[in-house]
Specification:
Blueprint lengths: L1 E6 L2 E4 L4 E9 L6 E7 L6 E7 L5 E3 L7 E6 L4 E6 L8 E8 L10 E4 L3 E6 L1
Parallel strand pairs: 2-11
Antiparallel strand pairs: 1-3, 3-8, 4-5, 4-9, 5-6, 7-8, 9-10, 9-11
């Protein structure tokens, strides 16, 4: 099994930056793909960013492409989401997820999920 634990959420002001972390533990697998999703109140869960564990190729949703950066530190088994120029519309619960394919943007393709971490951006 793969366990994912997110952290780093909190309350920030519009324009601020915040970095989320996702620690991966347990048994991993070949072609590991990691992703970040978010869900705002009353909204469906949406794709944010994805990264290949090996190689580090990335993919972003258009809404965050110029502001967010996904990365990983393999030695620490950790995936990060650096969020810059935060807007109130970024307010959501952010979830880390793991897939058996890389650069997956569809929620149903992910096999493991973290518990989520709340990000609130005040205007």
């Amino acid at each position: 099994q793969v366990q994912l634990v997110e952290s780093g959420g909190g309350l920030v002001q519009a324009g601020d930056s915040l970095r989320l972390s996702c620690v991966v533990s347990g048994r991993t697998f070949s072609n590991l793909g990691m992703g970040w999703f978010r869900q705002a109140p009353g909204k469906e869960r949406e794709f944010v960013a994805a990264i290949a564990w090996i190689g580090g190729s990335t993919e972003y949703a258009e809404s965050v492409k110029d502001r967010f950066v996904i990365s990983r530190e393999n030695a620490k088994n950790t995936v990060y989401l650096q969020m810059n120029s935060l807007k109130p519309d970024d307010t959501a619960v952010y979830y880390c997820a793991a897939a058996h394919r890389v650069l997956v943007i569809f929620e149903q393709e992910y096999d493991f999920w973290g518990q989520g971490t709340q990000v609130t951006v005040a205007s």
